[in-house]
Structures are given as C-alpha cells and as structure tokens.
Amino acid sequence: MSGQSDPGFTPTGTIAATKDRRRVVFATVVGTTVEWYDFFIYATAVGLVFGQLFFAPLGANSALIAFATVGVSFLFRPLGAFLAGHFGDKLGRKVVLMWTLILMGAATALIGVLPTYEAIGITAPILLVLLRILQGISAGGEWGGAVLMAVEHAPKKKRGIFGASPQIGVPLGLLLASGVMAIMTAIAPGDQFLIWGWRVPFLLSVVLILVGYYVRRKVEESPVFAELAERKEEAKMPIVQLFKKHLLLVIIAAFVFAGNNAVGYMTTGGYIQGYATNPEGALAMERGPVLWAVTGSAVTWLISTLVAGWVCDRIGRRNTYIAGWIMQLVGVFTLFPLVNTGDVGLLFAGLAILTIGLGFTYGPQAALYTELFPASIRFSGVSISYAIGAIAGGAFAPTIATAIVQATGSTEAVTWYLAGMTVLGLIATLLLRDRSGIPLGPDHEAEQSVSPIYGLAKA
C-alpha cells in the first residue's frame, strides 16, 4: 500500500505502532534537549564568564565581541543545513541526527577543557570561536532531521503536538543549561566559578551525548523517507531543486522563524543574563537568582510550546501563529520595564510573559514547515529555511541589543527592535496559506509542490 497519504503508515502499509510513535517522540525530545543544552550552555557562559576569561584583554568592547561569537555560529548554520539537507534527503533522517549529536557533544566538551586567555593568549578566543562554529554546523543540521522524524511519523490530525516534541527540546535545553549553571554558582561561588565551576556544565555534555545517542539508535527511519528509498525516488540534487522551484517560499518561511528567534535570543542568547548581572551595569544582580529566573521562564516556554502544538491541530497552524505574534508583542513591551526594576521576581515575570508568546510562535513551526515542502526535498527545505531564519533573527540579536544599549544608554530602542522583528514574523505568516493535514507521502508530490504563498499558483 505505497499510496497511503498518512505518514502513520509504514512503507509496507501497516499502521505504525503506538509504542513506536512514542519512542520517536521520546527520542526527538531527548536528542534535541541534549543538542540545545550544548548550544545554550555556551550562550549562558558568554554572559557570565567568557567576556572576562577569553575576551577582556581585547579592550572595552570585550562584552560586544563575546556576544558576537554567539552570532558567528549562526553564520555556519546554513552549511550544516546544506549538508544535513543533502544527506538527509539522500541517506535518511536518522543517520544525520546521529552525526549532528556527536559533533555538538564533542565541540561542547572541548570548550570545557579549553585554556583561557591568561594561559595561552589570543589562541584561546580563536579556539573558542572555532568550537562555536562546529556547534553552529551541528545545530544547522539537527533541527530539520528531528522535526521530520517527529512529524512524518505522526497521525495526520496530531502533527502539531508530535511536532512540538522536538520544539520543547529548546526550552528544556535552556532549562537544563540555566539550571546546571545556577547549581554550579552555588557549588563554586565567586572566583571559584570563574576558575573551574563554569567548566563542569560543558564536561557534563559527554554523559548527555551518550544518553542521546543510545536513545536515537533505537528509532526507526521516517516512513516517508523509507518509502522514497524503497521506490528509489530520493532527490539527486535536492538543494538545487529547492532553490530552483521554492526560493521565495524558503525566504518567507525563514522570516516566520526570524520573528520568533530574535526575541527568543534575549534569553537563549544570554543577553538578559549578562545585562542583569553585569557588575558595571545599572542592575548588577546576583548570578544565581537571575539564572533561576531564566530557568523558571524555560518552564513557561515549554508549557506554552506544548499547548501551541495541541492548539494548532485544532485551529490550524496559521491561526495559532497569529495569536502567538500578538502575545509575543505584548511580551516584548513588558520585558524591559519589568527587568529594569532590578527585582528578580519581576524579572521572572517579564520573561514568563514573553515566553508564552514565544511558545505560540514556536510550537507549530515543525508541523508548519513540514507541510510546506514536497517530500523529496523536505529535509533541505525545512533545514535551510530554519538556518536562514536563525541568521536573520537570533544570530546577532544579543550583539545588536548590547550595541543599542551602549549607544543610547537605554533599553527602549531594543524593545522597538524586537517589536519590529515580531511584526515581520506576523507579515510572513499572513503570506502563507494553512496546509494543515496535507498528505506528506511521495504519492502526493504534485499537490505538495503547489505554492502555499498567497497569489502564486505554483512554486
């Protein structure tokens, strides 16, 4: 029964067992959590220690330079997306996910043993940036494979909630990264944190990678790709086909994510942590309470992401996004007034309000992206759209925010910058038709290739 339209069917036509689907969900959650823990532990450390240990000797702009290294990794996400998209559409989703996990873990663990500027001079920040680049390549390839494994295994009417499983890996990764860092500030307070405490969360990555690798090994390949492989219909040059036929769609989809990502990187990029705890800043708050506030906001983000996945299965991806952009805009305008009070409870409140909107503009993304692109080039489409959106959105959001505050002495312009990115995401969403429930299998390539962009008949 190779003609089934619901990817809940395997290539041989049997309905995928519930336990197999649960295993896929569990594996995507664990794997993406580990990946994003690794990615975010760097951003958290930038705001807390890297500026002092690796970049301080570079002068007065050391904080700006340190945050720029967060963005540098995004410039290499497209490379990871191109590689992962090419091999994911030719060799399968599973093999790519295994390699991205290993690459991310190795880079993170090596950061944990890296000598500081005081020990080896300029070589230290150079090596740090190189390892951050490897993290960026891995992150660029990870997301597309994870969401396709989740959504292509899902029943047609539950793609949103299944797709939210890899999405919650982001707030879970943030929760884990901030939580571990907060614990280490208690175990190794003051100078001890700068001497050795910050290294422990990076070295912990080795254990997490082993767990993630074991879990992902147990997962079956995506039924959509398995059917493509069985028919020998894998795309020969998927990236060439993607840009030839769907370039405008890639750009619009990228801006949908950019609107979410720029705002999200106020926390995941380490900006709020660094802004609130900067000893020379206006707030100069203690590290531990700020990290616990960020950890708490990761919980509200996780919950809202799951709820958004459930909601978008009922009212559609587009309607859920529109509601999310409105909520995100509210969060943007309340964030800094609450943070600037210097009260840790109000800081948490500002982040919690913000993350509700973030969840609703992130939870439906996996299902939305999967339903936008034809099966044979889907890995390339979702990965490259995501990577471009990350560059346009979060790549340099912390750097831009730091530069704005340095230039104006106020966070008011940062608020308008984030509001502008939110509106941009809303506009991009309004340009797309809702394709909830569209058949995902290779029998429906013609239907999948009809452009979802309003005003275009074909891609």
From TrEMBL:
PANTHER family in alphabetical order: SHIKIMATE TRANSPORTER
Entry's localization field: Cell membrane
PROSITE patterns hit by this protein: MFS
Keywords from the UniProt entry: Cell membrane, Membrane, Transmembrane, Transmembrane helix, Transport
Key word Glycoprotein present: no
Protein name in the entry: MFS transporter
Domain Major facilitator superfamily (MFS) profile: 24-437
Membrane topology: Multi-pass membrane protein
Annotated Pfam families: MFS_1, Sugar_tr
MF terms in GO: transmembrane transporter activity
Cellular component aspect of the GO annotation: plasma membrane
Membrane-crossing segments per the record: 64-84, 96-114, 126-151, 172-190, 196-215, 247-272, 292-312, 319-338, 344-363, 384-408, 414-432
